């Protein structure tokens, strides 16, 4: 079975990184192969190895990017469209969180 995953590097938000890697991308997405009964934790571990330089299990396309290895505070999205689930890489494991889309009414804004 395949599931779409996408990794967004928090390190790429650092201005120093942006200077060193102009026009560098900050995310990498691909389809992860996994067992049909695999849970999010299993998919996250596959993603972690695929997006870590030196793991021996790197995704060949990831190796062509200049994105840093997946590490603490980086965000992983599992699924696409209406099936998205978001996790933050923690020092030990993963933390699931939910993105909130807020509509802002600007008609009463002083700006």
Shape field:
globular
Over the alpha carbons, how many angstroms does the gyration radius reach? 16 Å
Structural class: alpha+beta
Name the helicity range.
10-25%
The tally of domains stands at: 1
How can the largest sheet be summarized? Answer: 5 strands, antiparallel
Mean pLDDT across the residues is 83
SSE string:
EHEHHEEE
Strand content: 15-25%
The number of E-state strands comes to: 5
Distance between the termini: 50 Å
Q: Uncertain segments of ≥5 residues (pLDDT<50)?
A: none
Strand order of the largest sheet: 2-1-3-4-5
Q: In DSSP terms, counting alpha (H) and pi (I) runs of 4 or more, how many helices?
A: 3
What does this structure look like?
This protein is of the alpha+beta class and 111 residues long. The chain has one domain. It has 3 helices and 5 strands. A 5-stranded antiparallel beta sheet has the order 2-1-3-4-5, covered by helices on one side. A hairpin with a 4-residue loop joins strand 4 and strand 5. The chain starts with a strand and ends in a 14-residue tail after the last strand.
């Amino acid at each position: 079975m395949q599931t779409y995953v996408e990794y967004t590097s928090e390190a790429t938000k650092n201005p120093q990184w942006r200077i060193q890697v102009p026009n560098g991308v900050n995310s990498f997405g691909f389809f992860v192969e996994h067992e049909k009964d695999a849970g999010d934790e299993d998919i996250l571990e596959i993603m972690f190895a695929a997006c870590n330089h030196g793991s021996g299990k790197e995704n060949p396309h990831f190796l062509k990017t200049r994105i840093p290895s997946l590490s603490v505070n980086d965000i992983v999205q599992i699924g696409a469209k209406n099936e998205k689930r978001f996790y933050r890489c923690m020092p030990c494991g993963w933390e699931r969180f939910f993105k909130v889309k807020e509509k802002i009414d600007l008609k009463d804004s002083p700006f």
